[in-house]
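Re: the pair you flagged

First of the two:
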Amino acid sequence: MTTNRPTDAAPRLRVGLIGAGRAGVVVAAALARAGHLTIALSAVSDESRERAAAVLPGIPVRDAGEVARGADLVVVAVPDDDVAGLVRGLVATEALHPGQIVLHLHPGHGIGLLEAAVSRDVLPLAIHPAVALGGRASDVDRLVGTSFAVTTLRSLRPLGEALVLEMGGEPVWIEEEDRPAYAAALAAVRDSMSGVLTAAGRVLRDCGIEDVASVLGPLAHAVTDEALKASSVSAQRSVDPPSPHSR
């Protein structure tokens, strides 16, 4: 279980979580471990309530408007199709106020989803951890060393990067117009690896191997490392000027 970490000083931000999805609860728990205070969350389904109780025990469940009103930092962790509408509703009911921070966690969108909040002088952030999260308390450790895509107004870039660093992540700046391509690249890797490993696992089990992870795990890690090294070399060659001897 993850709880708000006790500190000698008062927490710097009161965090409200709207939507207790797999990524949302982990990010809220990581912020709590960094010394911020999760004050309330909203969760609609039984599954999300159970997830929140496991990862953020003792945090009261409230409606979205009440969560937003009491928070300095509002983490909007609902499906991407619902973010803009939810934010418009929070603005219409005056649940958001100037100076608040509102962030969402979707890879394919920047701060455009938060446009209605920006009109209220709310500070918009779009951050995305490039790691698979299962909505477990142990996933907080997965964020350490993970790259986070950060998109926001240029003036707020230090704020977004600071929050990522507090969670143990590595901030990577992504322009607003590049978010769809960024998301597509991550999805391609995730889907292809998942499909290949699932198919290979079936074949190995048919061969009588029960612990397929012990066979495929080291191979997958080795192949990934080699592919990333080759990709890095290729990227470097594309930006380096040609050598005079190569002409």
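Second of the two:
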Amino acid sequence: MPIIAGVQETYLRMRDKLKDVVPDFELQQKAELVFEILRLKAERRAVILGHNYMEPALYHTVPDFTGDSLELSRKAAETDGDPIVFCGVRFMAETAKILNPKKTVLLPAQEAGCSLAGSITAEDVRQLKQRFPGVPVVTYINTYADVKAESDVCCTSSNAAAVVESLNRETVIFLPDEYLAKNVAKETGKHIIFPMSHPAGLRTADSSLDYAMIGWHGKCEVHEQFTVEDIERVRQQFPDVVILAHPECPPDVVAASDFSGSTSAMIRYVENTQAPRYLLLTECSMGDNIAAENPGKEMLRLCSVRCPHMNQITLEDTLNALRYNRYVIDVPEEIRVRAKRAVDRMLAIG
């Protein structure tokens, strides 16, 4: 299929950036989509947000801002762009709506859920609060708006320990990621229990009981797949590799890695260090995106773990979101206000 002039220029820019991570035939195929998205974005005065887990052909072409979910929502609030097209999953688009109530927020895929966000409901949080009265609830940003609304404060993977310590309380409820909670408990010196698997006799936050953090058995279906055996096999073949793990990975995986941090922290780590080669234990598209940004650094391509929810966001659907104003994200105002309170408290902590 011949490529028209404007599309040809788009293709050449994509090839210059992505030739080492995306096959050329794919770049040629997607250049027309990218060109049309950019044209329509300018026509509608829209802003596009691209999460770090987006496929490289999307991530490096159409977003106005890239980063992690909270960072993107904050950037959207600072722009005049409307609508906001969030190339990520539903809870991220909800967070953008929480912080940008007067703007239209679009999610390119109708579902684009999240195993972690879907592991807990607002009713679950209410029941925990009844079971442990007076204990503050810290909720990971990777949750839906109604769960945030039942929380005292939100946190990200990078500031979770700081948020917990800022409360200056002996006992906290930390939801919903089991592995992030265990990693934070280790960092803050707190003993953790999980009420779902604890003896039924435990009904209240009795200070005589030996715990300081109450967790939940939620997991990210991507990060829970990485194992210490994976790390050992990689190090046998590449002894000089630097391994970076997301805090949503199991604690033994985090302990066996060289660095653990949020997606943004991992990006900064690669940018600011010099190592023979790197391996990221997180969603695989992010490794390709970092490789494209750092062509002089060797990224091991040993990862085959893709998030099926992030993978629902395509260039075709991003174009259709702009064309047909779909899919609109709404958060009921009563929930939005309460959820924003929890997010604002986190932002005040830093």
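The radius of gyration is 21 Å.

-B.
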